[in-house]
Amino acid sequence: MEDIRKLMEELQLETFLSVNDIPELDLYMDQVIQLFEKKYTVTKRKEEDKVLTKTMINNYAKGKLFFPVKNKKYTKEHIMLISMIYQMKGVLSIGDIKKSLGKLNMMVENEDFQLEALYERYETLGTHNVARFKETSEQLDSEIAEEDRYIRQLLMVASLTHMSNLFRKAAEKIVDEIEEEKKDS
């Protein structure tokens, strides 16, 4: 059990860009990158990994994953959307992210939708997800505690990737529902 708790600590699972971390002032791209680097550096797998790059942000903008930027400055709403994209991109394709966020972008841009309230709800769900993940991981670890160290590691990897695939498939199915509802309306 000690190994799994140590792993959970090393993963820095509670690292999340909160509403309070995002300045009220609009930021230039380099400042957005610095904000993400400062927050997420502790979560990088390798030292040389980049958290966010100009190319990534430009690709998100070209792909219309968020509403257009004005005067090369990113608003608090842009940064919240980039943060959501940052979290989703590890699991979903850029196309699926665009489908997921398309209506939200229109709402923010056209209807004066209060994205901050949604983002705060997203933060709360993220905190709950971390707690559930830790609990599930500890349960899984206890189920395989009798095994040899390598076999435990292998079973943990196989089980975690299986669960990841289950969650990804469920997320993709919901994206498909969003796309279907968009076609129907």
Describe the structure concisely for a colleague.
This protein is an all-alpha fold and 185 residues long. It has one domain (2-184).
What does this structure look like?
Pfam families: DUF1836 (PF08876). The chain has 185 residues and is mainly alpha-helical. The protein has one domain. Helices cover 68% and strands 2% of the residues. It has a two-stranded antiparallel sheet with strand order 1-2. Helix 5 packs across helix 7. The N and C termini lie far apart (51 Å).
Number of strands: 2
Largest sheet: number of strands, sense, barrel closure:
2 strands, antiparallel
Separation, N- and C-terminal Cα atoms: 51 Å
Q: What's the shape?
A: globular
Poorly predicted segments? none
Q: What's the gyration radius in Å?
A: 19 Å
